[in-house]
């Protein structure tokens, strides 16, 4: 099994920045089989939504709300991926979850990290 641990969530004023990190640990072969790494956002009372994904090869995909403000990156050697969030807005408030995809063989989720953006 693979465990994902997020960090970096905090309370920040609107317009501020945060960098979230997600590190995978556990069975090395399972970690090496991760094909896609992602970040999802769950606002209070709403469903979890995609923020950004990045493949092991570096191809990225962003939700419209994240384009131009957020950047996803990864360090394969450290089994870690990041979400740099700039120009934060109150609507970015919520829990951010990292996700590891294994192609057709399922995925793993972290426990989430809280981001609160004050207006």
Inertia-based shape: globular
Poorly predicted runs are none
The average pLDDT is 96
Task: Kindly name the structural category.
Answer: mainly beta
Count of individual beta strands = 11
Task: Please give the alpha-carbon distance between the first and last residues.
Answer: 40 Å
Order of helices and strands: EEEHEEEEEEEE
Major beta sheet, specifics? 7 strands, mixed
Number of helices: 1
**What percent strand?**
over 45%
Rounded radius of gyration (Å): 14 Å
Helical content stands at under 10%
Write the layout of secondary structure elements.
Elements: E1 2-7, E2 11-13, E3 18-26, H1 28-32, E4 36-42, E5 48-55, E6 60-62, E7 70-75, E8 80-85, E9 94-101, E10 107-109, E11 113-118
Parallel strand pairs: 2-11
Antiparallel strand pairs: 1-3, 3-8, 4-5, 4-9, 5-6, 7-8, 9-10, 9-11
Please describe what this structure looks like.
With 119 residues, the chain is mainly beta. Helices cover 4% and strands 55% of the residues. The protein contains one helix and eleven strands; from the N terminus they run βββαββββββββ. It has one helix spanning 28-32; strands spanning 2-7, 11-13, 18-26, 36-42, 48-55, 60-62, 70-75, 80-85, 94-101, 107-109, 113-118. The strands form two sheets. Strands 2, 4, 5, 6, 9, 10 and 11 form a seven-stranded mixed sheet that branches. Strands 1-3-8-7 form a four-stranded antiparallel sheet. The longest helix has 5 residues, at 28-32.
């Amino acid at each position: 099994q693979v465990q994902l641990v997020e960090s970096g969530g905090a309370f920040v004023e609107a317009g501020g920045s945060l960098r979230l990190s997600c590190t995978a640990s556990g069975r090395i072969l399972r970690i090496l089989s991760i094909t896609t790494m992602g970040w999802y956002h769950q606002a209070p009372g709403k469903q979890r939504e995609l923020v950004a994904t990045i493949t092991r090869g570096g191809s990225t995909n962003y939700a419209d709300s994240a384009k131009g403000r957020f950047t996803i990156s990864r360090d394969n050697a450290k089994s870690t991926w990041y979400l740099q969030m700039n120009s934060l807005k109150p609507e970015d408030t919520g829990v951010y979850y990292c996700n590891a995809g294994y192609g057709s063989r399922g995925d793993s989720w972290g426990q989430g990290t809280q981001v609160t953006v004050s207006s």
